[in-house]
Design goal:
Elements lengths: L5 E4 L9 H16 L7 H10 L2 H9 L3 H15 L10 H10 L3 E5 L4 H12 L5 E3 L13 H10 L6 E5 L2 H10 L3 E4 L7 H10 L2 E3 L2 H9 L10
Parallel strand pairs: 1-2, 1-4, 2-3, 4-5, 5-6
Helix pairs in contact: 1-4, 2-3, 5-10
């Protein structure tokens, strides 16, 4: 039997390497248009997203109003339709093992349903069982417990049957609120020791590579899915 019948995966910088390849370069472009002369480094962008979240970073650091936040989102959606982030090597194998053994794959992310679905189709030839993305009202997005509560109720899981895998604090806050275990996807944060240190201290598990997560999830299963 599976160690965790339901994997609840973050998307950006857990499944796909999107921050440095897609999201940060696009935000720099937005700043040039919305706030000429303003700038932000990749380290500052990552730290703010970790500490206060993307929307609050826009509001507090650059004084975006709500109309600008909507415009930024619509332009980002158009941008990612022609820019596909690469998947981390080894993620595909985890997804296929989880599904082949009857497990669920859910995504809770600050990306949109549209691009998450596209990325899963392009990279993995599958779609998640459920997606809770940026399309939700802000109050229901991660770190709100709403996605996990919905998954638990829909599939009749116990909290310990889920594993959240995430690289940022909102994922921890969501999991902690529901008593669901969380694993830190440390492979995306090797260049951010402060974030890595905090997440390792907060999370139930921490993995430096996708291969480590794979071994943790499936090493006790033989090729037929029977516990050794």
């Amino acid at each position: 039997m599976l160690k965790y019948p339901c994997l609840v995966l973050d998307h950006d910088d857990t499944v796909v390497a999107s921050e440095s390849n897609i999201n940060y370069p696009f935000f720099c472009y937005i700043l040039q248009n919305f706030r000429p002369g303003a700038s932000i480094t990749l380290d500052e962008y990552t730290q703010d997203c970790f500490t206060i979240g993307f929307s609050e970073m826009c509001r507090k650091r650059f004084q975006f109003n709500e109309e600008e936040l909507v415009s930024e989102y619509q332009q980002w959606l158009a941008y990612i339709r022609t820019h596909i982030p690469p998947a981390y090597p080894g993620i595909r194998e985890i997804l296929y093992k989880q599904r082949a053994l009857g497990g669920k794959i859910c995504v809770v992310s600050h990306s949109s349903i549209e691009n998450i679905t596209r990325d899963y189709r392009v990279h993995f030839d599958m779609e998640p069982d459920d997606i809770f993305g940026w399309d939700l009202p802000e109050a229901l997005r991660k770190p709100s417990p709403y996605p996990l509560k919905t998954i638990l109720k829909k599939y009749h899981f116990r909290p310990e049957e889920l594993l959240v895998v995430d690289d940022m604090r909102p994922g921890y806050e969501m999991a902690h609120a529901c008593g669901v275990p969380i694993a830190f996807s440390g492979w995306s944060r090797k260049n951010f020791p402060e974030i890595s240190g905090q997440m390792k201290a907060l999370c139930d598990f921490s993995f430096e590579s996708v291969a480590e997560l794979d071994a943790f999830l499936f090493r006790s299963l033989d090729k037929d899915g029977i516990m050794e």
